[in-house]
Amino acid sequence: LKEENATLRSKINKLQILSEAQAEKxxxxxxxxxxxxxxxxxxxxxxxxxxxxxxxNLQLMTKRAVKAENSAAKLRQENALLQVxxxxxxxxxxxxxxxxxxxxxxxxxxxxxxxxxLRVTASSRSSLRQLLSGAExxxxxxxxxxxxxxxxxxxxxxx
Length: 159
Known about the structure:
mainly alpha, 96% helix, 159 residues, coiled coil, rod-shaped, ENTR1, 2 helices, Endosome-associated-trafficking regulator 1
C-alpha cells in the first residue's frame, strides 16, 4: 500500500510539473496571441492610412485631370478661333496682293501678321498635344490608383 501510495504521489508530482509547464506554455501562447493581435491592429491601421492616402492622391489626380481636360477644351477653342483668324488673314493678304500691288508697306504688314499667326497656331497645336498627353498620363495614373484601391478591398474581404 505504501509503494502504491508512493507511486501515486510520484505520478501526482509529475502531473503537477507537467501541468505547470503546460500552464506556462499557455501563458506564453496567450502573450504571443495578444502581441499578434496588437501587431495586426497596427497593420490594419497602417493599411487604412495608406488607403486614405491613396484615395486623397486619386482625388487630387482626378481634379488635375479635370483641370487639364478643361484647359485642353479652352485651347481647342482658341486654336479654332486662331484658325478662323488665320484663314481671314490669308484671304485678306490675297485680296491685298491682287487688288493693291502698289502698297508694299501694307503687304509687308499683312505678311508679318500671317507669320505671327502661323507661329501662334503652331505653338498652340504643340501646347494642345502636350496637354492631351498629360491628361492621358493622369488618366492612366488614376486608373492604376483605382485598381490598387480595388485590390485593397479584395484583400480586406479575404481576411
